[in-house]
Design a protein that fits this description.
This protein is mainly alpha-helical and 152 residues long. 67% of the residues lie in helices and 8% in strands.
């Protein structure tokens, strides 16, 4: 394969290994969440955000999940239809709508998290030594820090 200008052969190999490995991992995680828990990875992230931080505005969920407002609207509509979340009016501001988990949604998050964590451990952390974990943390910390705030 020809090496694109600006990348060495080693850089290209590492980039493709990281890119393909990450894409395959996320595809697998998404596929398993859909098959076993009935929610996509994006929906899982939204539900985890609500479980962790409590009821949230749609704009905050969109930013947290790195999706557009229309994307989060579609996610929330599907989660409402499944009975996992509901939209409520904020008590202090009658104009603001918040998204919160239902009791059923909490159960889905608990079950999905147990399955998801098991898969992440099996496919990522069970294959890494402590020094490799520290290296990955440092590398992806630098990558994240180099990106514009709008992506974080």
């Amino acid at each position: 394969m020809p090496v694109p200008e600006g990348l060495s052969e080693d850089e290209l190999r590492v980039w493709l290994t990281m890119l393909v490995g990450s894409m395959r991992l996320f595809h697998h995680l998404d596929e398993r969440l859909v098959a076993e828990d009935g929610i996509s990875y994006a929906e899982y992230r939204t539900m985890i955000s609500i479980a962790r931080d409590g009821p949230q505005r749609m704009s905050d969920l969109a930013q947290e999940g790195m999706v557009s407002r229309s994307g989060i609207s579609r996610q929330v509509a599907r989660l409402v239809a499944l009975g996992h979340v509901e939209q409520v009016t904020e008590a202090t501001d009658g104009r603001t709508r918040l998204v919160r988990l239902t009791d059923g949604g909490r159960g889905v998050v608990l079950a999905a998290t147990a399955n998801h964590v098991s898969r992440v451990r099996r496919h990522v952390f069970d294959h890494l030594e402590d020094d490799e974990l520290r290296t990955l943390d440092a590398v992806f910390g630098k990558v994240d820090a180099s990106l514009p705030d709008s992506l974080q």
